Amino acid sequence: xxxxxxxxxxxxxxxxxxxxxxxxxxxxxxxxxxxxxxxxxxxxxxxxxxxxxxxxxxxxxxxxxxxxxxxxxxxxxxxxxxxxxxxxxxxxxxxxxxxxxxxxxxxxxxxxxxxxxxxxxxxxxxxxxxxxxxxxxxxxxxxxxxx
Length: 147
Ligand SMILES: C[C@@H](O)CC(=O)SCCNC(=O)CCNC(=O)[C@H](O)C(C)(C)COP(=O)(O)OP(=O)(O)OC[C@H]1O[C@@H](n2cnc3c(N)ncnc32)[C@H](O)[C@@H]1OP(=O)(O)O
Known about the structure:
By secondary structure, the chain is an alpha+beta fold. It has a domain at 12-27 and 62-140: Hotdog Thioesterase (Thiol Ester Dehydrase, Chain A). Helix content is 23%, strand content 32%. Strands 1, 2, 3, 4, 5 and 6 form a 6-stranded antiparallel sheet that branches. Strand 4 (102-113) and strand 5 form a beta hairpin. Residues 41, 43, 56, 61, 63-64, 92-96 line the site of ligand L74YYOSM. Residues 23-127 form the MaoC-like domain.
């Protein structure tokens, strides 16, 4: 399930420190199976109940990069939005995301370099009020001058 968050582009000229955008998505078994298919990462901790039961997680969990993909979606669809180029992203996976967890993915602008059109953002994913992923993104933002 995806929020009906506004889509589009916020150009570098309109981006301000402290701006926040987010989406909510429930991570389903189907998402995990599709991500395994697309990425070819078939680690049984994601796909095999019996195997996952005997791990530190006690059950299947989502791929970390699937969760991280939700950050990419906020950046590419909302802030800055369409036309953004991802330059870098750090990630720390702090807690597992389990099938059917509702993930809130959030990005917050912390630094803007207008001369280079670069924006740094704190990025985080939250499940039931707990941070499961944190990191920092650097992006090249679209500009009205290059429309
Ligand atoms: C490749 C794929 O197929 C596999 C995947 O995608 S797996 C899915 C993605 N990963 C996860 O879901 C893991 C989520 N993380 C966790 O569940 C926990 O971090 C952990 C179980 C791995 C460790 O938790 P815990 O044993 O409770 O560790 P502590 O909280 O006690 O912390 C101990 C120190 O380690 C530091 N630390 C913990 N997690 C991270 C992290 N993700 N990145 C960096 N550092 C981490 C923590 O700060 C503590 O440090 P300190 O200096 O001792 O205070």
